[in-house]
Amino acid sequence: MEQIRFEQLCSAVDANRGLIFDAHDYIWAHAESGYKEWETSAYLEKGFEALGYELHRAGDIPGFYADWDTGRPGPAILVIGEMDSLIIPQHPAARQTGCVHACGHHAQSAALLGLAAALQTPCVRDGLCGRVRLMAVPAEELVDLEFREELRQKGVIRYYGGKQEFLRRGYMDGCDMAFMVHTSYGEGSFEFPNSGDDGCLIKTVQFIGKATHAGIAPHLGVNALLAAELSVSAMNALRETFIEEDHARLQLAGITGDSVSCRLEMKIRAATIERLRNINARVNRAIAGATASVGAQVVISDRAGYMPLDNDRALGEVFCEAATLLDPAHPLSMGDEWSAGCTDMGDVSLLIPAIHPYCMGAAGRAHTDAYYIESVEKACVTSAKAQLVTLQLLLENGAEKAKHVIRSKKMTFASKEAFFAQLDGMMYDREAIALNGDGSVTLKF
């Protein structure tokens, strides 16, 4: 890229620094958890419309997208910004709701607005072809799941993740590739350590016992809490069978209730869909067997979490080129590490080439009460510049690099329908055992 062109792009972002900083401050102060980001979405919508964009709103859930067209045919690139917060009541900046942006999604949203503004600078279209879809999405953090299940039961959503839901609704149809830049912390300006992330599945297990007088007739009762305790022990016995390549995690979120009825919540994480399904089947068997051993009943409810992230190598190399132009003192290359974290960007990556790199600017470990944005300049302004330069590299010269990304990728799923059939197959509510009249027990897993 010519130096004069690079400087033009950076200047287009710098001209909107005030807009970016204001968005950062507002969204930080108005943190909202998934599918409740109405204030955040309204703020961004107003900003986009003031820039001249025509919005396509989700309507019954927060979020929207807007298209920017060069006027010349070419690939379509999706750029995503996340809007939701975590719920950490002990964070010093938490709202009364407990919501706080302890993962930096507010910085993503501010950078997305800054990118939208920079794209409206007349010179930015010069020499480019194709179009860009800018998308503000809700609900990436897997929190407040009871609320999401309520929305699912009402038919408002089908999936817990905002990107999954936007995929289902067709908002990403026609896009050839996607990227988003997450906020992180460390030296330099960018990092891209991971080739991918785990997928996850969400489990809710309801144990049903039988009431009795614990002192006078304990033999007539069935203790649901003991069934839960034995189930946890049985699941823990599986851990030594996990192989390193699984990158498996059994994450117990908690047990609530009493001896008559109690509820266990957990997540299962693994590196591939196959391993996720395999480990989940073994966990279900462990729960069913442990519960049957004390004569309790159990209902297992599984919900698809997020699918494994497959960072596209060809697209990642283009982002690394852009990042290195912005910070030549810290050349960026895409790493081969694996993360046991998960994101619904993984779902996107199984249908179109996608990447999930990081931009510095935060301090304190994410998802804790010590997290905050130390440098808005890095987290938001530099991020917007990296995204704009990446778009330039992809869409210049007849979109040569974007077309290379498309040609070189073999997708995991051939169609959106096949993908959602896989997700739907992971979701059910099922009694795990049958207590037969002759005293025998049938395991349904």
Commentary on this structure:
There is one protein chain. The chain is α+β, with helices and mostly antiparallel strands. The chain folds into two domains: 3-197 and 308-412, 3-Layer(aba) Sandwich (Aminopeptidase), CATH 3.40.630.10; 199-305 and 427-443, Alpha-Beta Plaits (2-Layer Sandwich), CATH 3.30.70.360. It contains 13 helices and 23 strands. The mean pLDDT is 95.
- The shape, in one word, is elongated
Low-confidence segments, given as residue ranges, are none
Span of the ends, CA to CA: 58 Å
The H-level CATH homologous superfamily of the largest domain, spelled out, is Zn peptidases
Quick structural overview:
The protein has 445 residues and is of the alpha+beta class. 36% of the residues lie in helices and 22% in strands.
Secondary structure layout:
Blueprint: H1 3-14, H2 17-29, H3 38-50, E1 55-57, E2 64-69, E3 76-82, E4 86-87, E5 99-100, H4 105-119, E6 131-137, H5 145-154, H6 162-168, E7 177-179, E8 182-183, E9 190-191, E10 194-197, E11 199-208, H7 224-236, E12 249-257, E13 261-270, H8 273-294, E14 297-304, E15 309-310, H9 313-326, E16 337-339, H10 345-349, E17 354-355, E18 358-359, E19 362-363, E20 372-373, H11 376-395, H12 400-408, H13 416-424, E21 428-431, E22 433-435, E23 441-443
Parallel strand pairs: 3-6, 3-7, 7-17, 8-18, 10-16
Antiparallel strand pairs: 1-2, 2-6, 4-5, 9-18, 10-15, 11-13, 11-14, 12-13, 14-21, 19-20, 22-23
Helix pairs in contact: 1-4, 1-11, 2-4, 2-11, 4-11, 7-8, 9-11
